[in-house]
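Materials and Methods. Structural model of Mpv17-like protein. The 189-residue sequence of Mpv17-like protein from Brassicogethes aeneus was retrieved and submitted for structure prediction as follows.
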Amino acid sequence: MSKFLTLLKSCLNKYPVVSNSVIYGSLCVAAEFTQQTVTKKVLPETSQPYDAETIGRYSIYGTAIAGPILAVWYRFLDQKISGTTVKIVAKKMIVDQFTFTPTLLVIFFVSMSIMERKPDIFQECREKMVSTFKTSCMFWLPCQAVNFMLVPPVFRVTYIGTCSFAWVNILCWIKRQGNAQIEETQKLN
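The predicted structure was written out as tokens:
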């Protein structure tokens, strides 16, 4: 196991954006795959195969969009606000949650809508942003406290990626809520 961690740390140090993007993208794909698997087990009448297009969209979002943004963001945040005292950790958590998270949620909803070729790429964002942000506060504030107090900077995106596996499962679930209603509304218009 220590050889793996040594290799991982080496890759993260040499190629931080690429390594973090691959890790984050893989975890996004795993989260969507998990959601599709759970949905099939809960709703056995949906015996259709896995939706590869949706899995592909999460791959693009995680690897090409969110992964690089997260890698650059945490490097920037660590440079601007360094340290692990309670006051500094609280400051990082507030800056992260209330400036970066809303931006990342908008990017998530809009980029997914673009990839889904929706006629109104902002509709889902308008409908789900507030409730998703509230949920993210309950989930991410404790995760970020651990991140900023205990996780070495080189492993921040990997840690966030691991937490994101759970979070993206939540996002996948949120994204699925109301999609049928949205599609019906669009057909009527």
